[in-house]
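Thought: the user wants the 3D structure for the chain below. I'll pass the sequence to the structure tool as-is, report back what it returns, then summarize two notable features.
Action: structure_tool
Action Input:
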Amino acid sequence: MPLDDLYQELILDHYRAPRHKGPCPGCGREVKQDNPLCGDVITLRLEVQDKTIARIAHEGQGCSISQASASMMAEAVLGQPVAQALELGQSVRALMRGESPSAEQEQALGDLMALQGVASFPVRVKCALLPWTALQEALAGAAPQPPVQEESPRGDKGA
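Observation:
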């Protein structure tokens, strides 16, 4: 079976039998993203414990690309440290820009490589990125941030 056919089957499998779809009682973070141009809607719920994505679920409606991407994303980031999940999101964005991943990135992307063909259809890129945008928003502030140096009242940098 050609690789493109395999990738297409993987996307259809996630669309027909989405993973981690449904409510997430007790999840403290909820983000809704939509694409008004095509009608795709994703609601993402997750719980972060010890800087790790402990639980994640999604609900929504839309095209097979957006819904499969949500399923694939949830499966890929569950149990991952927040920083690693955000890094994976950047790799998916690069993939959607048509950038070729390094061998290491390709291995980290795993099944998400199936989305690579979407880059050939610019109108569908936002569909594939919708759940990743929701993830980025949901994790805002959850990733470790570098310390901020505050200025003292004298105007010099404090430690």
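Final Answer: Structure generated. The beta strands are 29-35, 40-49, 52-61. The first strand starts at residue 29 and ends at 35.
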